[in-house]
């Protein structure tokens, strides 16, 4: 077991593209770290650098107290699970798991014991003689996991291992991966662009954007206090509503302490339909309902913000605010009619404020 530390890690690809622009974070021994961010933000690049499959342009990667910049992948004591599993098609499940151990010259009884133990944990013991093509997608994914488990590495690295699976299997495997990692308590770094996967799996969440870290924290802290508007709209679905305010608008809403323009944020689940005025300091928005999505236990209401409500009133140029789309998320299936005008309210402590460029969270 080991911790993993990245110190000012950078990657410039041949040709000059800077894919990783100075990343620092630490994954504690036994922690499950999830790297999440949009396509192209550098997640796989970073993971492959930890694995040693990609060189590091500058900075340091440290695994278990040893700088591994110049250590070969095979000597880093890591095991990686990829999105496309990459099983050997002509080998049985057993041999797929045993292959790497044999290559390392491990004794046969030890290989047998490790493969059987992994098969038991993953519940694929009855399939050891089958070829990958005789397995379902979920079963193949388990074999890929098994291949990593038998190595008994210090660190597991996962690159979107569930993205080839259908939605239901994804959820089932997600829960299994978490249980497995708790049980083995092996340090893990897991890459995904799925924010729900990130929220549910992570002990420590690293939100990346364009080669940089936007925020690091526990999933619920990141959800409760996003550091930037990027994080605010990336974590949580539907995303946080973001409404630009001029300096006057910010002052009118949040008092004299803040004197700059900003972006007001409020999550869809923190808005409720109500004709009553909110508690002091709360927010009211007047919306024209444009679309309804009923997903079963809850309903998403899409509306356009109309002049009126207390935001227009605090704008320095009432009526000139663009008609913004607002999403609200309400429990149950009852919803207003399309075209109806409604008022929605949020409590003061559920309001977020960011700098006008979205790069900074402002305490209010
Ligand atoms: N070998 C390479 N040469 C040049 N640029 C590369 C190379 N590999 C990746 N890139 C670029 O580096 C950036 C980061 O790529 P990376 O694969 O790390 O993204 P990612 O976050 O894993 O995305 P995805 O979610 O789509 O897998 C992208 O803009 C990509 O085009
Ligand atoms: Mg990737």
TrEMBL record:
GO molecular function: ABC-type transporter activity; ATP binding; ATP hydrolysis activity
Topology with respect to the bilayer: Peripheral membrane protein
Keyword terms of this UniProt record: ATP-binding, Cell inner membrane, Cell membrane, Membrane, Nucleotide-binding, Sugar transport, Translocase, Transport
All residue ranges annotated as the ABC transporter domain in the record: 4-235
Domain of life: Bacteria
KW Cell inner membrane (keyword) present: yes
Pfam families the record matches: ABC_tran
Family, per entry: Belongs to the ABC transporter superfamily.
Name recorded for this polypeptide: Carbohydrate ABC transporter ATP-binding protein, CUT1 family
